[in-house]
């Protein structure tokens, strides 16, 4: 059977490739300005991300929270609902799941119960701006962004006082019981079950939801033209609400997987900014689950490979943030760049 890509899909691929290429060109200028060879810099980033089995596994481990968060954001963004609060939703889901795991102890229900509660925690935190958006008409960009700070500081308070670990002096939770730890799938590595659940379960489910279901059609319809969607019988408010809470659910799972698969305690520094990185990934992937998956691997590789590049070439690891920022600029401008190239005949309109 011949696989045919639609015109819009091909166009999205072009936009993503152009955005990455231009971001790397601009970053190359930065490397040259600081006395580094950009070709060597990218080589060491690649080696640091995929140089051997352990490094490849670490890149996949890093991909997991980014993928889960960005899949959720893709659902919201497809509906033109700008959820900037995935970071806070991640923290609240992780905190709720950790409390559940520690409370239940070594029970057969500990892991599934903590995952369920993490989902509900992320959903509940996303439901607040969702209700404010649908019932009061308050802009979700403002509410979701500000609620990140509320969530992070609230979690830090919980870890400093009522849920502080009794066996350490640090503001962190007690260690989750063994029953809540995600099994390691490959000995001597950190490849845990959450990696497989994210790639083999969450990714196909979100793809099916967005591409093959009526709900996915509603997301696209509301995102393209809310008034036309309402005229066509779609409950716009309900679709927006569901898009936001589903986005929060996936962020909550991402947070718990970091606790149960990597850190084994809830900490105030759980995320290095996965909620914000997810925004870049969702935009770069054009809100398409497959594009989001590939973009997640790309950003995870940049994250992990930058430490090797930094050590070998004596460059700051802050280049990761620089690349992300430049990517956002070019992703947002990619439509205008494509139109210009089409006008010049580089691509067929």
Short overview:
The protein has 349 residues and is mainly α.
Offer a few descriptive terms.
single chain; 349 residues; mainly alpha; 13 helices; 0% strand; globular
What do you see in this structure?
- The chain is an all-alpha fold and 349 residues long.
- It has a domain of 227 residues.
- The chain has 13 helices and no strands.
- Helix 4 runs antiparallel to helix 5 and helix 8 packs across helix 10.
- 46% of the residues are buried.
- The mean pLDDT is 93.
The secondary structure category is mainly alpha
pLDDT averaged over residues? 93
Helical amount: over 70%
Number of helices: 13
The N- and C-terminal alpha carbons lie at a distance of: 27 Å
Q: Return the string of H and E elements.
A: HHHHHHHHHHHHH
By oligomeric state, this entry counts as single chain
Poorly predicted tracts of residues: none
Overall 3D form: globular
Could you tell me the strand content as a percent range? Answer: under 5%
Rounded to an integer, what's the Rg over CA atoms?
21 Å
Largest sheet: none
- Strands, total number: 0
Blueprint of the fold:
Layout: H1 7-33, H2 38-50, H3 53-78, H4 86-104, H5 110-136, H6 140-160, H7 193-212, H8 214-224, H9 226-231, H10 236-263, H11 274-284, H12 289-313, H13 319-343
């Amino acid at each position: 059977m011949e696989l045919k890509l639609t015109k819009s899909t091909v166009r999205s691929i072009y936009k993503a490739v152009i955005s990455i290429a231009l971001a790397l060109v601009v970053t190359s200028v930065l490397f040259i300005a600081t006395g580094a060879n950009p070709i060597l810099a990218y080589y060491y980033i690649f080696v640091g991300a995929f140089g051997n089995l352990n490094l490849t596994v670490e890149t996949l481990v890093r991909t997991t929270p980014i993928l889960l968060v960005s899949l959720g954001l893709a659902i919201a963004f497809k509906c033109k609902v700008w959820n900037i609060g995935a970071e806070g939703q991640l923290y609240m889901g992780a905190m709720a799941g950790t409390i559940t795991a520690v409370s239940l102890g070594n029970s057969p229900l500990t892991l599934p119960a903590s995952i369920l509660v993490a989902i509900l925690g992320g959903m509940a935190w996303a439901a607040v701006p969702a209700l404010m958006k649908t019932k009061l008409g308050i802009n979700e960009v403002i509410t979701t962004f500000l609620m990140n700070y509320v969530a992070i500081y609230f979690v830090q308070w919980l870890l400093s006082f009522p849920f502080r670990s009794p066996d350490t002096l640090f503001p962190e939770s007690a260690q989750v019981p063994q029953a809540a730890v995600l099994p390691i799938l490959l000995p001597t590595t950190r490849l845990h079950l959450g990696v497989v659940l994210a790639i083999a379960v969450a990714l196909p489910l979100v793809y099916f939801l967005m591409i093959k279901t009526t709900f996915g059609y509603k997301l696209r319809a509301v995102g393209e033209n809310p008034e036309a969607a309402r005229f066509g019988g779609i409950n716009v408010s309900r679709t927006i609400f569901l898009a936001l809470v589903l986005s929060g659910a996936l962020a909550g799972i991402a947070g718990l997987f970091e606790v149960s698969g990597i850190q084994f305690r809830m900490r105030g520094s759980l995320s290095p900014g996965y909620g914000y990185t997810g925004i870049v990934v969702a935009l770069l992937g054009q809100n398409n689950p497959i594009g989001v998956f590939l973009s997640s691997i790309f950003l995870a590789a940049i994250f992990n490979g930058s430490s090797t590049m930094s050590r070998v070439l004596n460059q700051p690891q802050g280049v990761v943030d620089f690349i992300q920022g430049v990517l956002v600029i070019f992703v947002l401008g990619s439509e205008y760049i494509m139109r210009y190239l089409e006008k010049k005949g580089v691509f067929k309109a």
